Amino acid sequence: MIILHGSPLSGNTHKIRMALAFLGLPWDERLADAAARQSDAFAALTPMRQIPLFADGDFTLRDSQAILALLAARHRPGDWDGDTPEERGEIALWLSHAANEIANGPAALRLARKFGLPIAEDHAATVTARILPVVEAHLAGRDWLVGDRLTIADLAASPYLALMGDAGIDLADWPAIRDWIRRIAALPDFPAMPGWPAEGAI
């Protein structure tokens, strides 16, 4: 049985939750809140003390982008992780954006404004202002980030953009991103998440 250590409000956890749900894979989700992540028991599972943490038997893997790559290679090779060298390169680009500009921009602003964490808001706002127009322009006239289908690029990049409202950013100002978020939420078996706008709310 797959075990997913995470948190209900973690966008990174939700990336893996979506992947597992869309793949039809059963999993056991275990809460790993901030206090639990400081325990020696959790450090024994992952020295970075971060979520999500994926466990399947004796195999464990940390980092949401790495876990998505594993799941794609295991269960949807070519379809989710790129059918050509060009697609694989583009997917890698969006995984990088998810781990860098999106994490340090909209996701960081959410941490500051929703949870009160001591984040450098000016820097996060600057990064956000740089990445959002890039994503909006890329999605204009297309349904998915790479190719003509959902890939792990969409799974990696979408949660913290869907949750921008928690950071005080109005999705209505970004219609291509808004419509993309709506498409993902409309997929069969999409797992609901607090803060991810429901159909008709955006």
Secondary structure topology:
Layout: E1 2-6, H1 11-23, E2 27-31, H2 34-37, H3 40-45, E3 53-56, E4 59-62, H4 64-75, H5 85-115, H6 121-139, H7 152-162, H8 175-185
Parallel strand pairs: 1-2
Antiparallel strand pairs: 1-3, 3-4
Helix pairs in contact: 1-4, 1-7, 5-6, 5-7, 6-8, 7-8
List keywords for this structure.
single chain, 53% helix, 202 residues, globular, alpha+beta
Describe, in plain words, how this protein is organized in 3D.
The chain starts with a strand and ends in a 17-residue tail after the last helix. The protein has helices spanning 11-23, 34-37, 40-45, 64-75, 85-115, 121-139, 152-162, 175-185; strands at residues 2-6, 27-31, 53-56, 59-62. It contains 8 helices and 4 strands; from the N terminus they run βαβααββααααα. The model has no long low-confidence stretch (mean pLDDT 93). With 202 residues, it is an alpha+beta fold. The longest helix has 31 residues, at 85-115. The chain has a 4-stranded mixed beta sheet, covered by helices on one side. The protein is globular and about 45 Å long. The chain has 2 domains: 2-75, Glutaredoxin (3-Layer(aba) Sandwich); 85-185, Glutathione S-transferase Yfyf (Class Pi), Chain A, domain 2, CATH 1.20.1050.10. The chain is 53% helix and 9% strand.
